[in-house]
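re: ur msg from earlier - yeah i can do the flavin-adenine dinucleotide complex, just paste it... oh wait u already did. ok heres what im feeding in:
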Amino acid sequence: MQGSVLVLGAGMVGVACALELQRAGLQVTLADAREPGSETSHGNAGVLTRSSIVPFNNPTLWRALPGLLSNESASLRYDPGYLLRNIGWAARFLAAARRGTFEPTVAALDQLIRLSLDEHERLLAESGQLARLRRDGWMFLYRQEPRAQGMRLQLEMYRRCEVEVEDLDPAAIRALEPALRPIFARGLLIRAARSVDDPGAVVRGYADLFTRRGGRLLRRRAVGIDRQAQGWSTHFDDGSREASARVVVALGPWSAAFLRTVGLRIPMAFERGYHMHYARAADGAPALTRPIHDAQAGYVLSPMRRGLRLSTGVELDDLDAAPRHAQLDAAQRAAAQALALGPRLDPSPWKGARPTLPDSRPMIGELPQRGLWAAFGHQHIGFSTGPGTARLLGALMTGGPTPIDPGPFAPQRFAGLGPTR
Ligand SMILES: Cc1cc2nc3c(=O)[nH]c(=O)nc-3n(C[C@H](O)[C@H](O)[C@H](O)COP(=O)(O)OP(=O)(O)OC[C@H]3O[C@@H](n4cnc5c(N)ncnc54)[C@H](O)[C@@H]3O)c2cc1C
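and the outut:
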């Protein structure tokens, strides 16, 4: 029992944590209600990049607010009732856009991403999936010259964190991606960025590696958890229980609701997003070769094994509220201006939610209840940062030297999540 750990959630974060704790010699069980990598870690854009250091709540957000009030922006929409019910979270999210919080967040995310990209490379090799990795970068594209303030801030953070970026004029954009129509005035290329052609399959490959190495995988939904003299007892929806010395909660957007069952209030909001796949417009037509972000139209296009994946910006709403497809439809219209889109391939759009804490940093560390650990809240970058999260969590749980400063990610930075007892 002493070295036993139960990891709840087999998305990118949970699977990476399970692998790391197994590597540290602990006896690890991983549990998920569904097949590994079926939820948020399936539906994302598959981009792994050092440039994901500038969160949505950055100092330009204040100036952008009037434009967001119409609720028709491609990059951010919201349900007004949801925002009102979560006004405390929204106020803290806005407050964290100030330089004083934003700059430490950028530095912390940079550390986590650097660590993660090397770990992904190792895990992709160990799980025999290096062929899924593209190394040809990722592009931001602008239809009009972008707002000077936003661009200045982005480039300033890249310089500070040594993220290499190349400025692209229309001819350079066309040379890199002949599939694009000449509607873009400017681009930025992050040449060192990587991407994968099937994020869910990558997570399943990592989970297979975990079981091949002797890890135990349970397909069960956790419904509650009790503290015991020696650790924790987790209950599942089939009536079974699992005893373990420690539990890692890596339930992505479901983490906050689960932790309510032990009286913890996690300040998490849901930045929902949608995706749809498209077939090639015509045989022989040039295809997009790397992911692109049409920044002013607010969508991302990523070439995937299934087809071209269009993913949307943010919709703030309850996790389980009914889907709304206007944002995806608008993104589809905008994408069809950028390149020839073939027919839709999915019967209905996929919907998921980025789990976001007010300061846009994930929560990694021990919660106030001894033996209960947090690994969630990875907003827009959890697919990339799962493996770095695992390295940090592994070091914290085994008492080894931490690869990066754990302070910015500590649960105790939030009121109500005080010292572990
Ligand atoms: C549209 C979109 C695009 C994105 N693009 C990118 C990108 O390009 N790059 C990037 O790095 N990130 C991206 N992200 C963010 C990224 O997908 C998430 O941050 C990440 O997948 C979160 O991983 P996770 O393991 O925490 O959560 P999840 O992948 O959601 O895993 C949580 C798991 O918990 C399980 N679960 C839930 N409740 C229970 C329960 N009670 N019992 C047992 N199991 C349970 C679920 O089945 C699920 O498998 C994007 C997100 C979206 C929505």
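cool cool. The CA atoms of residues 40 and 352 lie 6 Å apart. ping me if u need the other ligands too
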